[in-house]
Design goal:
Distance between the termini: 15 Å
Structural class: mainly alpha
Shape: globular
Length: 202
Amino acid sequence: MANAVVVPHSLAEDLQALLVAPLFVAFAVLLFRQAGLLTGGSVGLAFLVHYASGWPMGLVVFAINLPFYVFAIRAMGWEFTVKTFAAVSLLAIYTEALPLLISIQSLDSLFASVMAGFLTGVGLLILIRHKASLGGLGVLALYLQNTRGWPAGKFQMAVDCVIVGAALLVRDPLSVGLSIIGALALNLVIAVNHKAGRYVGV
């Protein structure tokens, strides 16, 4: 891999990633919501607000991410921020559109947690490889790492623990436990597939 040629992504490839990745995550959101579960990060924070208030999930996802674009610009630059804004906006749109296109009559909660975790992991992996994200707390973690020296992974883990703990206020313990399984499935996809030297492309 040391002699591999780094091939930049074309504009068409970036557009494809920005269109497809949020759709994977939106389908995961549909499964999580159908089963009464949630996940971590800013989407998990949006789930907490959605379950507590009944506000539209897509609108909450979009609104919660707005403050974090300032950190995205400072931590990752304009290109990353614009791509992230596009991805989050599409996620918000897809999240509201999919329930109009799909009706799920029966869904096992354990399957929903694992499958939704896998889908979210794949969606995030696509965005990472195209220098984008779903914004939110992950961007704040990177900003704090760059400016304060706080380890991004530990900060993200701490915040996710808070989100999961707060979930006990709006969901039952079984649902929270299944949500944790979904989060583990998500992180498994990222851990196995996102390693330096295994993917060539910028």
